[in-house]
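Translate sequence into structure tokens.
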Amino acid sequence: MAENLPLSGNPARLLDPGAGLGILACAVCESSTSDIELEAFELDDELAEYLNGCLSYAQQWMSKRGYSLAYTILREDFVLTYADALYWSTSQPFDAVIANPPYFKLSKSDPRARVADRVVHGQPNIYALFMAVSAALLRPGGHAMFITPRSYAAGQYFSRFRGYFFGKLRPRMAHLFESRRDVFDEVLQESLILLAERSDRDSDVILSSSASSADFAQVVQRRKSTDEVLGVDNILHLSLTDEDDSIGEIVRAWSGSLRAYGMEISTGPVVPFRATDFVSENGDVPFTHAPLLWMQNVKPMRCAWPVRHKSQYIRMDGAEKLLLPNKNYVLLRRFSAKEERQRLTAAPYLADFDTPVIGIENHLNYIYRPGGDLSPEETRGLAALLNSSLMDTYFRRFSGNTQVSATELRALPLPPLELITELGRLSAHSDAPVDTFITELLGLYA
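Result follows.
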């Protein structure tokens, strides 16, 4: 991060808004060939003492090499201190920012969420506020380097933040850590290093990836235009291989969508902790209870019911608003496990139970046709497409989160409906992997 952070000005004015022990700031000192004026924020009093010791040593180290380090440690909340910069120009711009901000969700009533309402939506994660305020504090031509979760790169939840952030900064470099386990234990999605410049000028973006920091030696860099990296709604598309490029071209050429085919996607209405009076481990289907489908019931291309360790029944009397008509649905898991290879897991539900209604739990999304029905071929075909390596690879280009949101799936390009229904017909009569049919059908419907 430090080696790739351009520093200009002598002295260069550097901001570290979540300094901790000063590891990132000290790394900049090690690679710098200019004097540095550092402003470092650290709220934890004990950490701030250690930070002072580290920066004092860095100061001596730089002095021996003919450079100076002047630093200020602010034991204040960074967002509250500089939130005004989100609304009007600051008189103290920085030349560079380097940051590993904290990661945790804030309540809507948190003072930091309230002062930054220009860039947040719903219950924000504080790291996005650090990024937004840092962007506001950069002078034109200044650079910011962040290591954060990748979750801001896509999804409706961060759209307001992306609009603000990429309205001020243009991406220059992105390095993706593809492992969701080997970088930060507390982060449930992939981590991303992003270098961005305070500029309205586009240029090539350098993309690279590794499983973790242990295999930097094998990193291969690729150059992409800004238009290829920043998509609609400022979603970051990280095309890291030739296969990513080929699949991206195929999928982007599709003009179909759920809405174009009269389909919709929603989140399961049963929230178990709010429906404890209705959810049970035993029941009489279809007389007093309906089947309740959880994320654990959904396997690739099949629904397994019942499963152990889950309450698989929901009482019908009194829970009418939580239940859905028993008809054809495509069920998708909303979450994937931290190291699960398949990001998209879908199953066709073909009105499998002898019951008027079913329950779908909140960790599932379901695709349906409002005011009508999905045909069996459409249901199987769409599930097969979503389980395919092609669609999973495309989805990974812009989503590194454990969550699969309905918003992202609603915007997903789809092939011709004829291809989907044919895929459903083929998959109903064969146990062959869905990728076999995808390859065959793409040639027919190209």
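Note: The longest helix spans residues 45-64.
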